[in-house]
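Lines hold sequence, tokenised fold; shown next:
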Amino acid sequence: MMKLVILAMVAMYLSGCVLTKIITVPLRVTGAAISIIPVAGNTADEAIDKVADTIDKVPI
């Protein structure tokens, strides 16, 4: 019984990590694509990375 509880807790923890990665990976890819733009690209990429880092820190 205890193994089942531990397994359920680990599954819930991992699902939170996966959930934030599902959200942040497309953000980071978009930021990398935008960074190609000569003038405003790096600024937009930094802003998107900051948002993605904040989402990664959310304890889901």
